[in-house]
Structures are given as C-alpha cells and as structure tokens.
Specification:
Chains A, B: It catalyses: isopentenyl diphosphate + (2E)-geranyl diphosphate = (2E,6E)-farnesyl diphosphate + diphosphate. Chains A, B: It comes from Geobacillus stearothermophilus. Chains A, B: It is found in: Cytoplasm. The structure is a homodimer of 297-residue chains. With 297 residues, chain A is mainly α. Chain A has one domain (3-294): Farnesyl Diphosphate Synthase (Orthogonal Bundle), CATH 1.10.600.10. Chain A has 14 helices and two strands. The first copy, chain A, has helices at residues 3-26, 32-42, 49-60, 69-87, 103-107, 109-128, 137-151, 156-166, 173-199, 203-230, 233-236, 242-245, 251-277, 283-294; strands at 96-97, 100-101. Chain A has a two-stranded antiparallel ribbon with strand order 1-2. In chain A, strand 1 (96-97) and strand 2 form a beta hairpin. In chain A, helix 1 (3-26) packs across helix 3. The interface between A and B is large, with 51 and 51 residues.
Chain lengths: 297, 297
C-alpha cells in the first residue's frame, strides 16, 4: 500500500471500530446509566492503536479485516475498562483522561467500577458470537484464551498490581520493564497475535509478528514516559510531569532522557526488522510503528 | 441417590471445588499480593451453591461431574469477584463478609478492585483450557457465551447497576424482581444451564432444568430477605436488619413477612415440580432446593 492509501485504510478502519463499538453498546438491554457510562469511555476517542494493530495484521496477511472487527472491539473494550478502573480514586486518582473528566467523575465510582466490569465481560461475549464460517470455534477459543491471559492476573492485571505495589519505591529497570511488559505490553502483543491467528499466519510469520509487537510495546511505553517530560499539556490531555511529581519510575528517570530516546530508537528498529522478516504486506503495521516513534500525544 | 449419599456427594464435590480453586490460584505467575487477595476471598468459605448446582446437574444427567469442575470453578470465581466489588466503599461499603473482614479491608481498595478484575478474567481462561475430548470446542464456546451474558451488562452487572440506582428509592415488586433476576438469578440459572450443556441434556430437559433454576433463584433471594429479618447475626456473618436500616427494598417489606414466606414456598414447589418433569437423577438438585428453602445462613 502507498502511504496515502495506508492512511486512508487506517482512517477507515478506525471509523469502522468506532461505529461498531457504539452499536455494541446500543443493542444492550440494560440500565440506561450503565450503558451511558460504558459508552462514555468507549467514545472518548483515543488512537485505537490496539484494534488498528489487529486489523492491520489481518490485512497484512491478505484477509478481509472486517472478519476481525468483533475481536478488535473486544480488545478496545478491555483497554477501556482498564483505563476506567486505573483512573479510580483508589488507583491513580485521575480526574482527566484525554482532556475529558474521567468516568467516575461523571458517573460516580460505583457506576465506573460496574461500567469497567461490564466492558470486560462483554468483550468475551463478542468473540463467542462470531459466525463459525468467519472464524472457526477452535480459533475463537484460542482468541479468548490468549485474550484472558493477556488481560488477566498473568497479564495486564498483574502489571497494574505490580505498578500499585511499586509506587513510592525505587524500581530497578527490570522491575519497570516487568510492569510495562504486563500493563501495556501484553495487550499490544495480543492485538497483533490475534490478527495473526485470524489472518492464518504460519509459525514463522507468527513468531516474527510476536517479536514485532513485543518491541513495539516497549517503544510505546518509553515514548509515553518521554512525552510526560516533553509533551505539551493540551496535547496529551493530562498534566505534564505528573509521573515525576507522583515519584513514578520512568525510563528517563532510570536511563536519562537521552538514554531513553536511544532505547526507543532501538526498539523501533527491532520492531521494523521483525516486521520485514515476517514477509507480509506490512505497510500499515510499519506506519503504526512510525506513529508510535513520533507520536506527540 | 439416598439422602446420606447425596450429602456425601455434595461434600465431596464441595471439597473438589475448593481444592481446585486453590490450585488455580497457586499456579499463577503474578505479584504475590494479587494472588493472596484473589485467594483470600475464594477461600473465605461459603456454600459453593453455584458450583454444586452445576456439578449436581452434570451428575443428574449421568455424566462424571469432574468434567464440569473447571466451569464450576469459573462460576465461583465470578461470584467471588462480584462480592469483592459489591463490598467496596463506593458500592455497599461492607466491612464484613461471612464473618471475616472484606477484601478491601485487608488488601486495600486498589488491590481489591484488581483481585476482582483478575478473577473475572481468569474465569474465562479456565473454560478455554479444558481438553477438546472432555468438552468439545463448540460447547466450550457456548459455555463462555452464556457465562458472559449471565455475568455481564445484561446479567449480573445490570442487576448490580439497577440495585445501585434503586437505593433510597421506593421500588415496585417488579423492579425488585428485575434486580434479583439479574443480580443473583442469572448466575444461578447459568450454573444449572451449564451443567445441562456439559451433561448433554436434550431440549425438553434443558427447558425444565432452566425453569427449575429460575424458581430456585427467586426462592434463594426471598429466603435471603427473610433471613435478614429473622436470622441470627452470628450465623449469617453480617448485622441482622441491615437491609431495613439501609432502607433497601425487600420481599418482606413489599409483601409482609407472611407474604414473603408464601412466595418462597411457591417458588420452591415450582422448582421441585420442574425438576421432576426433567426426568433426571435429580436427588442432589432436590436436596439443594430443600437447603435453600430451609437455610438459616
């Protein structure tokens, strides 16, 4: 794909994800306030990087990305639930997310907890409902298994728990990497891995794509830490320097700003190399990789 | 089964569930405090009525209940997560559960939220991991789909959200029944339905067992409300009359105590009738039904 058509592809897919997410909430028969709270955070915007990784991987393997749409939405629901719960007063106690009041600020803590619980549970339902002809039962089961592992007590939840436990302590680089590999890495990796499963990647492609995603995940987090120091407040939608003032371990704090930038470049290069080795139509994935390296919010 | 062997069967199954639950947590590679928080509430006791309903239904259909054990544990994990989240300060704000300090009292709010999130996610993983030979992929997918529906934003989470919204308001009987059918009913019904799926029930048996479970679920809740008035504090492990003092809608409040007892008897009889109509070896299910009618905690 040419650069222009890559951008167009990603814009179209992002739109498809956002339309599908809204429909999935609309069709629910449940208390109105619960639906509103779930929709509020799902529709609060964001880069939709996880669904786009999945859909771009499916596309890179020559399959119709529409087949992966429900799984892409499931991933975004789980990502969104994690943001809602992370923002709670007893967790990170954030009032703003993407420049808007956080879920509990609008709907109250109880409803925010329930909206998160609802999104997490609903995500699994979406994958079960896909037609057997589009994704066979055994592959859907594998998709659910890997999603639960990526999101659960050996994945994202483990990362968040380690993050909570590490607050106020001086972390080593390996402890910091444990947190990031779990808190954000596992779900980013899952996004690509699920795309490989849906797209029918062979063993070698799957291995290279998994490596691509692992490096991309670390790059993503390092960039996040750098942005916290360099980014403009209005662009990232939260107070700049909040990590420093919260005394949180970050890559720049452990490696210096220059060292963090070097590490970012290393992981981006490694990601691009593994992507090339995967021998897929990876233009959209390469473009996402560039966006992560250069993103300013 | 004779009465004695029924009691023995249920005790053995309860033991099997508790052993399996502990093993499932032990095997996790994750932060120690997260595992402790998850295990604490899982191991806090309770009647294990949901897993026992599932395993007794599998047994009633002539199959080995061991086949259903991972699904029984998944149900108990989801039930336990819901208790942890319901007890949080922003929800019911309970300090005691089964006579022991609630999860957030011991591990803090953040870890309690994460323990709940972890249990919910892990529950789905357990079902995916069952061998194809024991439960085929298409049935496992159905089990996951129904579990997500029973627990999610059209099931248990909807009931809890409606309950939160109804606090301090005067509810009608139909609003109260909506809350109970969702908050506790859906998961009790799922327990029997999952047993029917695993045990290979035919359409008529499934229908009768579903009806059995629906009536049992309502009976369970009515008995709970009656206990809140009549029960001894040390037996139920929370202050007696807490519903009244919290101004919560209950069956006795809406129907009088005598009216509630009449309704309890009606649902127990209907449950037993549907169980007989299912033409299964239902001794253990009938016994659980009697326990619900007579339970004093």
């Amino acid at each position: 794909m040419a650069q222009l058509s890559v951008e167009q592809f990603l814009n179209e897919q992002k739109q498809a994800v956002e339309t599908a997410l809204s429909r999935y909430i609309e069709r629910l028969e449940g208390p109105a306030k619960l639906k509103k709270a779930m929709a509020y955070s799902l529709e609060a915007g964001g880069k939709r990087i996880r669904p786009l990784l999945l859909l771009s991987t499916v596309r890179a393997l020559g399959k119709d990305p529409a087949v992966g749409l429900p799984v892409a939405c499931a991933i975004e629901m789980i990502h969104t639930y994690s943001l809602i719960h992370d923002d709670l007063p007893s967790m990170d106690n954030d009032d703003l997310r993407r420049g808007k009041p956080t879920n509990h600020k609008v709907f109250g803590e109880a409803m925010a907890i329930l909206a998160g619980d609802g999104l997490l549970t609903y995500a699994f339902q979406l994958i079960t409902e896909i037609d057997d002809e589009r994704i066979p039962p055994s592959v859907r089961l594998r998709l659910i298994e890997r999603l639960a592992k990526a999101a659960g007590p050996e994945g994202m939840v483990a990362g968040q728990a380690a993050d909570m436990e590490g607050e106020g302590k001086t972390l080593t680089l390996s402890e910091l990497e444990y947190i990031h590999r779990h808190k954000t890495g596992k779900m980013l990796q899952y996004s690509v891995h699920a795309g490989a499963l849906i797209g029918g990647a062979d063993a070698r492609q799957t291995r290279e794509l998994d490596e691509f995603a692992a490096h991309l995940g670390l790059a993503f987090q390092i960039r996040d830490d750098i942005l916290d120091i360099e980014g403009a407040e209005e662009k990232i939608g939260k107070p700049v320097g909040s990590d420093q003032s919260n005394n949180k371990a970050t890559y720049p704090a452990l490696l210096s700003l220059a060292g963090a930038k070097e590490k970012l470049a290393f992981h981006i290069e490694a990601a691009q190399r593994h992507l090339r080795n995967a021998d897929v139509d990876g233009a959209a994935l390469a473009y996402i990789c560039e966006l992560v390296a250069a993103r300013d919010h």
